[in-house]
Amino acid sequence: MAEKVKVGFLLLGGCAGCEMAVVDLSEKLVDALEHLDVVFWAPTAADVKYNDLEAMEDGYIDVAFIDGMVRLDEHIHMANVMRRKAKTVIAFGVCASLGGTAGMGSLYDKEELFEKAFKNTPTTDNPDNVFPQPECLVDGKYHLTLPKYEEKVRTLNQIIDVDYYIGGCPPHHSHVGAAVGALLSGNLPPKGSWITNGKAVCDICKRNPAGKENGGRFKVQQIKRTVDGVPDEDICLLQQGYICFGPITQGDCGGSCINVNIPCRGCGGPMPGVKDYGAQALTSIGSILQNDSVAGELMEKYPNLAKFFYRYALPSGTLAKRM
Ligand code: SF4
Ligand code: SF4
Ligand code: SF4
To answer: Which fold has domain 5-99+154-185?
Structure first.
């Protein structure tokens, strides 16, 4: 039997949902494990310590899946260690690839975030203004440290060299299965590519009006939010006024949100070749609004357009470089 492919999983700043997508493979995972040897999975699944990774020979791991964004000095350190230990590194999920929803934290400075999290919420009682410190001495003898909080969120490729990218928050388990299959067969795209079927959510959406009788798109004439009503399940959401990012988002999820009558919010990541998801989203959506009045309605209903268009991708875009 051929030698098994050694894989490692490392979670940085994220919720571990990407790794749950691996578990969601269920019986397919059992089949895959005939060919895979999971040698590291931290801190989510296995009781291994960071030293265990540092002790491995460089290049020992064949493929590393790294999920989560980069916010702490610990993330930077561990990403660099994993880069040395792994022959191939995959930015796994939209946090690692583009910064994810936590990337919106980069719209605020560190002090504002700490004030909000540890003082200015209705349920926080902190009269002495106690904030987390990277180092402290307890009882005059115990020297404790916490990882240092970096100024901004960064994507994995802003820290280390990344070989491939997988979108999704989390990636759909069927797409994870396809990616593992591609790895095992060696049928991978050129280095630096997204592992994707290359189709947009619109391409696989049964509501797509293109090609239908009396089909074709028309300009968006009003803006609705999902709280404004229940969308008609047979009509394109954009055409009803619900802003759907399906035209510009990789559809490897199979249209999970559209299938339950929710507009695509863009977690799949940009179509291959697009460097700045938020700028592309703004351009595409802006170009199909009927007139200035509808554009005004969009700004009224979504007052923070940076968060709206860069919901999953702020740290990866040009906007973040200018802040
Ligand atoms: S991409 Fe989504 S599921 Fe994955 S770690 Fe980030 S927040 Fe969690
Ligand atoms: S815009 Fe949304 S609802 Fe309309 S066809 Fe594309 S994915 Fe489907
Ligand atoms: S429809 Fe869009 S937001 Fe929903 S899972 Fe797919 S890519 Fe993500």
So the answer is: Rossmann fold (3.40.50)
